[in-house]
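ok so i was messing around last nite and threw this chain in just to see what happens. nothing serious, just curious
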Amino acid sequence: YILMLVKPGNVLISNQGEIKLTDFGIAFKTDREGGTDDLTKTGTLLGTPAYMSPEQIHSSKDVDHRSDIYSLGVLFYEMMAGSRPYTNDFTLENITRIRKGKYARIRKINKSVPPKIAKMIKKMMEPKRSQRYQTIDQLIQELESFLLKKYKNFKTLNQAFINLINSGSKKDLDNFSYPTSLIYLKQTVNFFVILIVAAALVFGARISTPRLFAMVLPTQYGLLSLTTDKDFNYSHCEVKLVNQDKSGQQYQLLISKNLQWFSFYKMLCQPAKYTAYIKTGNYTLVDELMIYPYQHQKVNTYHLTIPQPEVTDVDLYFSVKDKNNQTLDRYQLYYRKKGQINWDKLNFASKLPNNQIYDFKVEANGYNPSQINNVTISPWQNQFNGHFILTPKLVSVTLISPQAKYEFIINGSQKAFADKNGIGEKKVIATSKENIYFVSPGKTEYQIIQNGNVLQKDTINIKEDSTYIVQSGQNNKIKLVRK
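result:
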């Protein structure tokens, strides 16, 4: 059997030190003769992403026992580090990190982890399954070799573990200390718990297929089969089932890659009325379905019918405002398709075909142009709304004072804009280094101040980006000279 469910939430520990594995909803036989092709199809994602091997993310159909070895390695890591090596999100960034094996090494987080164990965890979590332990026997052999350095036999280890679970005392904890490692209290308990969990998973786990599980509990579970039309061809589809009773239990199925169609068979669910949320592209379908217990209905079949998108021209609506949220009336809009270099004008009656990627730009006198890139207008859209915020055009003023430091007041303020969009501000000074500020073009009043004294007061007309130098004239009179 392939488990595909090794994670902390599915492992229970009794007071007698027994390890129980729960939630058999997605386990299946490694022997494909039993029709496992009905269970999973290429591109179907089943499981919790933080504990899924790279090959399981790629296709649940192609996994083998080495995928469970990988998940067990993640379990080792989390219990010793206190956190998962990866997040639990189906994001492109997280999936890429999992596929490349990019995570913080365990001894960087917890230096008390024995190097031997850290090496084992690394090997268990190799992204290429050919580089992991190829059989569970190899892992058992290394675990036994490590544990028997402290204990004469596993019976002694198991009794010590039972004592620790029931008492949690410092004395029982000391029985697990290793001379070569200084391990903190909580980390020590976690470390030996995962070793016992690993042994239980390896030697004691006996699970069944969803159908057999439903046959054992025919009134408590039902089987769900999801199918689509054969012309189904979307790069991403998400199906979420939400139980409408008070429990609110959810099941989620994520389908990736370019599937022509899919059939997800024998999904184990609690009998209830469910709300189904099916999302593909920008299209969302909400439907209801009933899942009856296995005793009354062997398989509950639900067929997903998703309408094909229509390529058509869409209406365009744009609003253009300044940074004070005031609507601008005079402006010009432009657009270009992805890959196009030149811009084409848009007027208020223009329409554009959907199922395209566009760049949009707006220009207005006295304002900086604004541009929005890589806008996808999906084939399900019949209109597009765009919003621009324009900032007034500013010119840059560079101040330099080779001899001394001076403060400035410009247009009655000690501060000027720090960027061309007029968002940030900073105090105006002149030093031996270049100090760059942004002001509105036109007549600008300024004062040069040192030690609280006004040394110079004048007006200059700034029309373009300029550099000014503070110089001493006759009788040490300070003046501002354009470079």
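not much to say yet. Confidence is low (pLDDT under 50) at residues 25-46, 180-186, 201-208, 256-265.
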